[in-house]
Amino acid sequence: MIDLHAHSNRSDGKDSPSELVRKAKAAGLSVLAITDHDTTDGWEEAAKAAQSERIGLVPGIEVSTRSKISLRSISVHILAYLPDPTHPGLAGELAKTRESRVSRAKEMVSRLSADYPISWHDIERELSPGATIGRPALADALVAKGIVSNRSAAFDSILSKSGPYYVSDYSVDTQRAIELIRQAGGVSVMAHPLIDFPAGRSELDLPTKHFEQLISAGLDGLEVNHRAVPEFAKQWLRELALKHNLIVTGSSDYHGDGAKDNLLGENTTEPQQLQRILDQASGYEPFL
Ligand code: AMP
Ligand code: MN
Ligand code: MN
Ligand code: MN
């Protein structure tokens, strides 16, 4: 079983990279990809653990990007597998994103502190050193204070994008990210496509042009099998993948016990599809 999307505490997961690898082994996986948000910080520890656990490890990153569709700006997550982590263009964008996430989180905490007993110190307690910060760390602090019951409740209420405390952060343009991942020898797969697609719309409304632009820019694959991908869109995505010879993956997007319901191995990737990633990547060696 191959699971190519999981988070450690180097971003918003609950487990250290080695705990994550141990849990992947215990869940019966043969290959795991560690894909923390906008960082490669967990790769080394995960690789060591993978060697002693005798499980395959594919180092990756979930890159936060933004695209303009018509007049809207939407958030798009791109999984980068096996890029060279020292590639200056890619590393520079990731550093810029992480820095912006810190100032954005500080601004959100400052807004929250007007109405809730919460300070930056409370957030720092929820983060391991050097981790990429996001709303999940704010959610964890709100849970620790007894203000909400769990992460999801925080996202549905206080931390909602449409709420008064939300602040947006910097993300690289999606097309640019895809080009940088390619330049860094990595393989790009769009994470959970169409996750934010408005409910009740039909297949006719799907943003075909947007996908085709990203494919022209070098997008290599689509994470079709993920719990958040709308059912009605899965067949459309598979056909798009077939038409453009894209890699199709399936993954859990595990974040640790209690963080999200996603369980390791709940969606998996076919060995031939992993092989295509390995064949196309030249930026970093997997541990297999
Ligand atoms: P941010 O990038 O800081 O805006 O936060 C988005 C991150 O929060 C995503 O990477 C998700 O993993 C996580 N997230 C989004 N919605 C939820 C939810 N309902 N429950 C738990 N985590 C969530
Ligand atoms: Mn996350
Ligand atoms: Mn994501
Ligand atoms: Mn993820």
Automatic annotation (TrEMBL):
SMART domains, per database record: POLIIIAc (SM00481)
GO MF terms held by the record: 5'-3' DNA exonuclease activity; 5'-3' RNA exonuclease activity
Region annotation (Disordered) ranges: 1-20
Pfam families xrefs: PHP
Record-annotated Polymerase/histidinol phosphatase N-terminal domain positions: 2-67
InterPro entries named in the record: PHP_dom, PHP_domain, Pol/His_phosphatase_N, Pol/histidinol_Pase-like
The protein, known as: Unannotated protein
UniProt lineage: unclassified sequences, metagenomes, ecological metagenomes
